[in-house]
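User:
I study polymers; will you set down one protein's sequence and backbone structure tokens?

Assistant:
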Amino acid sequence: MAPQNNAKPKRHKKRKSRTEVSSDSDSEPEIHQDVVSDQPSSSQPEKATKKAKPSSSTITTTAKSKSLTDAEVEAAFTKFYMQRLTTEFSEDLDKLRKADDFKDDALPLLIGALQQGTSLFGMEEKRRIVVAGLESEGKEGGSG
């Protein structure tokens, strides 16, 4: 009966097997995530409504920009662009007009060439600039 004494008794595992541990840990975060996701979901609409309330100037800007058609924006931007261009390059344009080889029929060609610069801007940029110009005119008109 010596062989029975030499046999070691089986050890009892105090830890859970890996599959049990991972399944337990997987289920716990799901419960935790459900609890966490329930709480923010109720507060998320509150945050969204706070963020969704733009200032009155933003509302008027959006209303003005949507009320303008692309053709109106294009015309207003071209007008603004040409005014800025002639202001910035007034001395150079005067030199061109006073040059000996500048003829009257070259003026429409010069205007057309200068207007081609508007094609460098996208419609959204043009709209933003026009709306900003309208806002600044409104502020100047209201205070003066």
